[in-house]
Design a protein that fits this description.
It is found in: Cell membrane. GO terms for molecular function: mechanosensitive monoatomic ion channel activity. Pfam families: MS_channel_2nd, MS_channel_3rd. It comes from Agrobacterium bohemicum. Belongs to the MscS (TC 1.A.23) family. By secondary structure, the chain is α+β, with helices and mostly antiparallel strands. Among the domains are: about 15-85 and about 95-145; about 155-215 and about 225-365 and about 375-435, no CATH class; about 670-750, Alpha-Beta Plaits (2-Layer Sandwich). About 65% of the residues lie in helices and about 5% in strands. It contains 24 helices and 10 strands. It has a 5-stranded antiparallel sheet with strand order 6-5-4-3-7. A 3-stranded antiparallel sheet has the order 8-10-9, with helices on one face. Strands 1-2 form a two-stranded antiparallel sheet. It is elongated. The N and C termini lie far apart (about 110 Å).
């Protein structure tokens, strides 16, 4: 009797649903915890970033659980369908094994359906929670940015009073901390600073070790090229700034871990170190771009005065912006009134706005007009208008009370502008080094050329790779810094990088950078293994087995195409693409193949037929249409034939299938050769035949079986015609053997007194009585036939009543000669 699903024991249920249910319990608890933390810390942007990352992970895990459960459901449905329906009442009973399996599958299906609903709910709730966090962050950012504060003289006066008190509190805190460090943390302080200096020096020494020739201007003499200026500017700015940043970061980390910093001092020290590193970076950047003291290293066409003013203005803006953040941190740490922070940002934004507005009226560009007065020129109008607009916007935002917006814009103008300038220098360096022929002139290019013997083309390709590497380095350096300056948290970038590497969905397609790279690597490895196996099989198996060259080529070509197809399939699968989804693309391509690609497909199929049937192989002497030569290469699309004049002709494979092809070496290289011979009628034919057979048997390449023979062909017009026929073991000897035989025949015929007659032709010329015999004789002499000249002179003897040639006027003679020449030319034509 069949069991009902209720009677099935719990042990009979597969663990797929149970594992999913256990994971869902943990996911629900995590979801509740995230929701509670959002309610408690909804104003902390950094905490919201972490919570959003957790919510995204939770949604991804739930979605993976749903996909796994659905896959198992499909497997169960397929299996239940294959088992069939239970027998109806009155029908013969089915085997108990089938009944038990059906009941077990139905029980698991019911449990999976129950768990599947929970998984879908968790996934949807986590996605909604992630969107809620994103909206909260946007609202928090907008509220901070567009918060309006009343700005007036009494407010600013009150802020001044509070500032004096804050300075006093800061002085007391720093004094107390210094006494604490000197009494209790002296060694820790010196150790942290020493280790930080050592770390920075190691980085600096390493940078100068590998890039010193690209960082020091003193290492070059003469007028530097634009590429050299870009290279020195980029690497000197990057390495030196990173050394200072590493020193500050290491110092902050070690001081904090060694317990040197107190909670009321640590934020101030950290921000101060960051400000110092940023100001140093801006100073190195402005020095690299404008080079106020060395005009030959200047990257922009600005005057010396303009370089000094612009570099100084940028440094002042960086200093003002950095001090604003430092003072704001001090106010937050010392719990100063909010109005004091607002007043500091107000002053800093006003100063930056005034500097930008003043720069818009500057004339920084160096004069390029040779005939001009040498005065500096204005900057482009769009740049002047942009600076003026930015300055007025900052000043206007401050005066209307939107100090937070003004501070944010001032920060972006200074920090983002500095980072973008560095990235742009890197991009210009990559573009310059990737130009044709430039990389070969660099130090690295010359070294690679000497070390590996690279020519201009490989070095040019290496230059492209170097340029691309510089692009990637510049973007990897600049993009995170720009994102940080615009308010993004490190967690945001980590989340994007994780999603980019592990996968993101576009529609129903999941794209993963790691999967794509893995697929490419799998294809490259498969391709390399295929090429290696081709060479190994050809050199170690077929070459030792003395396999025919054509067979070796066909087998190698077939293995090559098979290996590439297999490598492509594995590469596509490793990249995460479902091969079944390509069926729609293949069906769409079949329409194009039927119309636009029919010739390509025809040649491809013809190539496969030629590789399988092998009507000819590499090394064969073939004739097709007007093409005759040796087969050099046989592929699936076309065949390469080399003529005896050394010309390579690419013939589509379909021509070999659809037309007649002659193959001189299809089964063997034996060839029959013929030499026609003609002798005069007074020669003994049998003697001629004996001489020819005697001479041909002396030639070693001539086969004795079939035996050479001579055919008496015909009685010709002027001679007796014979033909010597013989077979050669290798048709490549044909020209040599026939050439030797002709020379021996001619030599032997001379010894035997056998003449080879020339063709004879009789020409009768009828001359009228008024013709000029001398003109006709001269014409025939011009044509080069002396016999005709003599015959013409005899036939054209003047009659007694004809005037002598001397009696004819010379103009008449010349006219008759030209007329006769034209007549003969017409007859010949």
């Amino acid at each position: 009797m069949a069991q009902t699903p209720d009677a099935v024991s719990e042990d009979s249920v597969l663990p797929v649903a149970q594992k999913a249910e256990a994971r869902l319990v943990k996911d629900k608890a995590t979801l509740a915890d995230i929701t509670q933390q959002i309610d408690n810390k909804g104003n902390d942007d950094a905490k919201l970033v972490d919570l959003k990352g957790k919510a995204d992970d939770l949604a991804g895990n739930a979605a993976a659980t749903v996909a796994h459960l659905r896959t198992r459901l499909d497997e169960i449905s397929t299996r239940v369908t294959s088992l069939g329906e239970p027998p109806k009442d009155g029908a013969p009973p089915e085997a108990s094994v089938v009944t038990d399996e059906r009941n077990k599958l139905n029980a698991e299906k019911a449990q999976i359906n129950a768990v599947l609903g929970d998984a879908e709910n968790v996934s949807a709730s986590a996605s909604r929670l992630s969107n809620t966090i994103t909206n909260l962050r946007r609202s928090l950012f907008a509220a901070t940015l567009f918060k309006r504060t009343e700005i007036s003289l009494p407010v600013l006066a009150e802020a001044g009073t509070e500032f004096v008190g804050e300075i006093s509190s800061l002085s007391n805190s720093l004094t107390g901390w210094a006494i604490f460090v000197w009494n209790y943390k002296r060694l820790s302080m010196f150790g942290a600073v020493t280790l930080s200096i050592v770390a920075a020096l190691l980085f600096m020494v390493g940078g100068y070790r590998f890039l010193g020739h690209r960082m020091e201007r003193r290492a070059f003499s003469g007028e530097p090229s634009y590429l050299r200026r870009l290279s020195v500017a980029f690497w000197s700015t990057t390495v030196q700034s990173m050394s200072v940043f590493l020193f500050m970061s290491a110092s902050a980390f070690l001081l904090d871990n060694f317990g040197v910093l107190r909670p009321d001092i640590a934020p101030i020290v950290f921000v101060a170190m960051s400000v110092i590193a940023f100001i140093y970076f801006v100073s190195r950047l402005t020095y690299a771009i404008f080079s106020p003291t060395q005009s030959e290293w200047r990257l922009l066409k600005v005057s010396t005065r303009g370089a000094h003013i612009i570099s100084s203005a940028m440094l002042v803006m960086a200093l003002v912006n950095g001090l604003d953040y430092l003072f704001s941190t001090i106010s937050e740490t010392l719990n100063s009134p909010l109005i004091l922070t607002v007043a500091k940002s107000f002053v800093a934004s006003i100063i930056i706005g005034i500097i930008l507005f003043a720069l818009s009226f500057l004339k920084p560009l160096a004069s390029t007009d040779i005939d001009g007065d040498g005065r500096d020129q204005r900057m482009p109008r769009w740049l002047s208008a942009l600076l003026r607009f930015g300055g007025l916007l900052l000043i206007g935002a401050c005066l209307t009370g939107y100090v937070g917006l003004a501070r944010f814009l001032a920060t972006q103008i200074v920090s983002t502008g500095a980072v973008l300038a560095t990235v742009y220098i890197g991009i210009l360096s990559g573009r310059a080094i990737s130009k044709q022929g430039i990389f070969a002139e660099t130090l690295v290019g010359r070294y690679l050329g000497r070390r590996f013997g690279l020519g201009p083309v490989p070095l040019d390709q290496a230059g492209l790779a170097a340029g691309l590497g510089i692009y990637c380095a510049a973007l990897a350096f600049g993009v995170p810094l720009v994102l940080f300056s615009w308010g993004f948290q490190p967690g945001d970038i980590e989340s994007w990088a994780y999603r980019l590497l592990t996968g993101f969905s576009i529609g129903k397609t999941s794209i993963s950078l790691i999967s794509i790279i893995t697929g490419i690597l799998v294809f490259v490895v498969g391709y390399a293994v295929t090429r290696w196996f081709q060479k190994w099989l050809d050199r170690n198996v077929m070459a030792r087995g003395q396999v025919d060259a054509g067979v070796r080529n066909s087998v190698g070509t077939g293995i090559g195409y098979l290996g590439v197809v297999v490598a492509a399939i594995f590469g596509i699968s490793s990249a995460g693409l479902d091969l079944s989804s390509l069926a729609l693309v293949a069906s769409a391509l079949s329409v194009g193949i039927g119309f636009g690609l029919q010739n390509i497909v025809s040649n491809f199929v013809s190539g496969l037929i030629l590789l399988v049937e092998r009507p000819f192989k590499v090394g064969d002497w073939v004739v097709t249409g007007t093409v005759e030569g040796t087969v050099k290469r046989l592929s699936v699309r076309a065949t390469e034939i080399e003529t005896f004049r050394g010309q390579s002709i690419i013939v589509p494979n379909s021509e070999f299938i659809n037309s007649s092809v002659g193959n001189w070496t299809h089964r063997n290289r034996i060839q029959r050769a013929e030499i026609p011979v003609s002798v005069s009628y007074d020669t003994d034919p049998q003697r001629v035949m004996d001489i020819l057979l005697e001479l041909v048997k002396k030639q070693t390449p001539v086969l004795r079986n079939p035996e050479p023979h001579v055919e008496f062909l015909r009685f010709g017009e002027f001679a007796l015609d014979f033909e010597l026929r013989f077979h050669l073991a290798d048709l490549s000897h044909g020209l040599t053997v026939k050439n030797n035989l002709r020379m021996e025949i001619l030599k032997r015929f001379h010894q035997e007194g056998i003449s080879i007659p020339m063709k004879q032709r009789n020409l009768n010329i009828h001359v009228d009585g008024d013709s000029n015999p001398q003109a006709l004789a001269a014409l025939m002499a011009d044509e080069g036939d002396k016999n005709l000249v003599s015959q013409t002179a005899t036939a054209a003897t003047p009659k007694p009543d004809m005037p002598k040639p001397d009696d004819v006027d010379k103009p008449a003679k010349d006219a008759e000669v030209e007329t006769a020449r034209a007549s003969v030319r017409n007859r010949k034509a």
